Amino acid sequence: MSTASEPNSERVRGVGAMHELASRVAAGLEPGMVVGLVGELGAGKTELTRGLVRALGVPADQSVCSPSYLLLNLYEGGRIPVAHFDAYFMAGPDDLERAGFADLRRSGYLVVIEWADRVTQAVPEETLWIQIELEEDQDERRVQWKSSAEFSLG
Question: Which candidate among 27, 55, 82, 89 keeps its CA 20 to 30 Å from the CA of 65?
Fold first, then answer.
């Protein structure tokens, strides 16, 4: 998570609190932005993405799930279309590009990348980095966010 600004953080407890945080994040997102998610397996990256997608108004009949084996899921019909990548199985930044990263950004998609720390060379400097850490109490998470661009939670 190498950016110029200091990280902001808060603790969230439970799925509802993660979705509420995602809703506040979504308020500041614009087409073409990139959100890089970092955290261990089970930390809540997909749950945060689910909250972002719902907060952006994507219809509830579109299931939001981890694109681990597909590499990419697209969600449309909301304020901003969302391209949801999972870089866990990517060999490097070239895999992200081959999956359509730049084209989707140019087309106005918000790009969310789980395991973004595996493809840092491919993401723009102004990426909004969100790191999710499991706390000792497995229902609680510490969520940190930072960006070299101006970004504040809604």
Answer: 27
